[in-house]
Design goal:
By secondary structure, the protein is of the alpha+beta class. The chain has 15 helices and 30 strands. InterPro entries: Alkaline_phosphatase_core_sf, ConA-like_dom_sf, EF_Hand_1_Ca_BS, Sulfatase, Sulfatase_N.
């Protein structure tokens, strides 16, 4: 393909061409002439592109698709654009994002599941092959300005540290010139762990001052778009706006949740019926669409404890307010683009969910969703949940809603997030808006489409070819199908008529209206005994007459089912789906999974000033004995205060700190109970070593242990931790040396987190060995010398 400048664009970057004309000796010679330097631009008329991807929103949640949460921005875009009612995702966040940004199926780019469960298998490695360049990279190399705001869950865990490598980071190999957001699956909306480019940054205000992550992301996106159009008006932009909302924790200012007070008293069964009625009125489902049955694994609303129902109602009120709040800030971004006159020629994708609604909050919902991820959901009793009801959505909770609400928000389909077999896990309402490029307004499109189609659509809309070489590497074909053919032809035959699905053994195949599916595992049952893959029961649905997958035809049409099962296997081989991997907890262990570990062995040495270290960047101290030793220096005439080392935050973690001159160790169990051991005497001034030893009880996971504190090898205090977290402290809080960023681990030292002495080195030792030795003085001297 050749554009108006005559440059070929299949090879990126576009190769520079040497000037071979007359070269004069004197620049003042009248014959001196060189072609002018022209800025790199895409073909004339190429649109700006805004891709908005919300998190964990079921098909039936937003009002634009018949749901209870008011989303006026989505409805506004619907009125001026197109509503796609059969748009699909992968059933899980990181895989959907990897597919969206590459235009390839998620196993094709190594994202068979989330990055934290990456294995050595090509389809689940967490590594996008360099033969499959990201769409933002292609656009940047064609002259687009590119920026991402919000969630990036595509970085392998061993690459999340401050030393990278940054190949999978947005501003690294991801192709984004600017990034403001977070790395990982979720974040605290009030106290996020943020990056600008590769540098960790802190929010500019507190929740008490009105801070919320979604608003912050919108503010930065608006500032960037305005700056980009002010300084480079001829260059189109590609903006990827991916807030952490509405992934748990469901955090939103109370006034947004309070709008929905009393709205969900009827429960989730009644809510699904109401949603389907609204969906038919809005025309986002056919008039004959049937409501699918409630699975046996999900209790009816009437079966729930009456004492718990007010808590369950509040969970949904908070979620609905959270979704409306998110839509409001998406609207601010849209308004800013409109205000600078750029909206007419901006191709907007508003994808309302990267998968179905999340059923990871247990049957009763969660005050702290990390309890379930640690296998400790039982600690959140109904009585406890009733006590914390009014904290849901606030800084004091890390909450999630009940499985029943997730199922309802996926109405009218079966199942939820992670269940890639059924439409409840994979069908997400999507709106496309582009006044300059789409003549139709306010219409629906019912062609089968998939998230891998976005990249191909953007390239066709921009008049750009699919590259054959990027940065010297030959490229594999994009696997998605452009949706441009459907923009102005409502009845155009669908072109994406074959698509496989797979997630944790849940699998399905779509082919020309038919779907064959099998559910293998249940998202919220962490200890579920799974059947053999060959024992899974397959279902068959005719989408031409059964839009919601309500009538299983497997028994009536076994030959059709067999043909589709065979087709699934063919597609699975083609796209690196095999081997099917249904392991969950085992894949969290890097050794079992076969992925690299940034830190290994039994010792790690950390230095002052290090911060924003993910759990993957720090030696694992869970379910074992460990010690943490710090070489510090304190002043003679000052009271020592502050954190020496902290891992995790308000909803789970531990810290070694000094308060009012005395050392202490605290273990925070899920934000529900703190176990604190304090020294019985003041820390002497001068160069000292503080050590906390934890002697694990053993005998399984999540057990307790005894704590002993030492000054210079001398015991100065002892205590007890009754129970520990076996799997994860936090999805967003980090390890910090000399301070405790984000939400502090303990209320004991709030306001005094920064250590006011000097820290030379901190050493963590793990295992059952005796760690009573001190830090090697030569090591301390070397570190101290290097800091001068």
């Amino acid at each position: 393909m050749v554009d108006r400048t005559g440059e070929r664009r299949e090879v990126l970057p576009i190769p520079d061409r040497q000037h071979l004309g007359l070269t004069t000796y004197d620049a003042k010679d009248p014959d001196t002439s060189f072609p002018p330097i022209e800025p790199l631009l895409p073909p004339e008329g190429a649109p700006n592109v805004l891709v908005v991807l919300l998190d964990d929103v079921g098909f039936g949640a937003s009002s634009a698709f018949g749901g209870p949460a008011q989303t006026p921005t989505a409805e506004r875009l619907q009125a001026g654009g197109l509503t796609y009612t059969r748009f699909h995702t992968t059933a899980l966040c990181a895989p959907t994002r990897a597919a969206l940004l590459s235009g390839r199926n998620h196993h094709s780019v190594g994202m068979g599941m989330i990055t934290e469960t990456a294995t050595s298998a090509p389809g689940s490695s967490g590594l996008r092959p360099n033969t499959k360049a990201a769409l933002p990279m292609t656009l940047k190399l064609n002259g687009y300005s590119t920026a991402q705001f919000g969630k990036c869950h595509e970085v392998p865990p061993w690459q999340t540290s401050p030393v990278g490598p940054f190949d999978a980071w947005p501003s690294g190999g991801g192709g984004f010139e600017y990034f403001y957001g977070f790395i990982g699956g979720e974040n605290n909306q009030y106290y996020p762990a943020l990056y600008e480019g590769f540098a960790p940054v802190e929010p500019d205000k507190t929740p008490e001052e009105g801070y919320h992550l979604t608003e912050d992301l919108a503010d930065h996106a608006i500032d960037w778009v305005r700056t980009q159009k002010a300084l480079a008006p001829d260059k189109p932009f590609f903006v990827y706006f991916a807030p952490g909302a509405t992934h748990a924790p469901h955090h939103v200012p109370p006034e947004w949740a309070d709008k929905y007070a009393g709205r969900f008293a009827g429960g989730w069964d009644a809510q699904r019926e109401s949603i389907l009625e609204q969906q038919k009125q809005r025309g986002v489902v056919p008039a004959d669409a049937e409501l699918t049955a409630r699975p046996d694994a999900i209790p009816a609303w009437d079966e729930m404890d009456d004492a718990l129902k007010p808590v369950l109602e509040r969970q949904m009120e908070v979620y609905a307010g959270f979704l409306e709040h998110t839509d409001f800030h998406v609207g601010r971004v849209i308004d800013a683009i409109d205000a600078i006159g750029a909206l007419d020629n901006t191709l907007v994708y508003y994808i309302i969910g990267d998968n179905g609604a999340s059923a990871e909050g247990t049957l009763n919902g969660a005050f702290n969703e990390m309890a379930n991820f640690n296998g400790l959901a039982a600690i959140e009793t109904p009585e406890f949940m009733a006590e914390v009801k009014d904290k849901l959505g606030t800084t004091d909770a890390y909450n999630h809603y009940s499985v029943g609400w997730a199922w309802a928000m996926c109405a009218p389909f079966q199942w939820t997030k992670q269940v890639a077999s059924h439409w409840g896990g994979t069908r997400n309402g999507t709106i496309v808006h582009w006044p300059a490029g789409i003549g139709s307004r306010g219409e629906t499109r019912s062609q089968f489409t998939h998230v891998i189609d976005v990249a191909a659509t953007v390239l066709e809309a921009a008049g750009l070819p699919e590259p054959t070489f990027v940065n010297g590497v030959q490229q594999a074909p994009i696997e998605g199908t452009s949706m441009v053919y459907s923009f102005d032809e409502a009845d155009a035959p669908e072109r994406h008529d074959l698509q496989y699905f797979e997630m944790a053994g849940n699998r399905g195949i779509y082919y020309k209206g038919w779907s064959a599916v099998t559910r293998h595992s249940t998202p919220w049952l962490s200890n579920e005994v799974l059947p053999a893959l060959d024992d899974d029961v397959w279902e068959l649905y005719d989408g031409t007459t059964d839009w919601t997958q309500a009538h299983d035809l497997a028994a009536e049409m076994p030959e059709k089912l067999a043909a589709l099962q065979r087709l699934w296997l063919i597609e699975a081989v083609k796209y690196n789906v095999l081997p099917i991997d249904d392991r969950r907890f085992e894949r969290l262990n890097p050794t079992i999974a076969g992925r690299p570990q940034l830190v290994s062995g039994s010792r790690q040495v950390l230095f002052p000033g290090m911060k924003r270290l993910s759990e993957h960047s720090v030696i694992d101290i869970k379910n074992r004995s460990f010690s943490v030793t710090a070489a510090v220096e304190t002043a003679k005439n000052a009271t020592t205060n502050g954190v020496v080392i902290a891992q995790g935050g308000r909803f789970g973690g531990w810290a070694l700190y000094v308060k009012e001159g005395r050392a202490a160790f605290v273990y925070n169990l899920l934000g529900m109970k703190e176990f604190t051991t304090e020294a019985t005497e003041d820390l002497p001034a001068g160069s000292r070593q503080i050590r906390a030893e934890f002697a694990y009880d053993g005998g399984g996971l999540a057990k307790g242990g005894n704590v002993t504190l030492y000054y210079d090898g001398r015991s100065v205090g002892s205590g007890r931790v009754e129970q520990t977290q076996p799997m994860i402290f936090s999805a967003d809080e980090t390890t910090d040396i000399g301070d405790d960023y984000g939400m502090p681990v303990s209320a004991h030292y709030v306001g005094e987190t920064k250590f006011n002495g000097r820290i030379d080195v901190v050493q963590i030792d793990v295992g059952d060995d005796d760690h009573s030795h001190l830090i090697d003085p030569a090591e301390v001297a070397r570190v101290a010398t290097s800091r001068q």
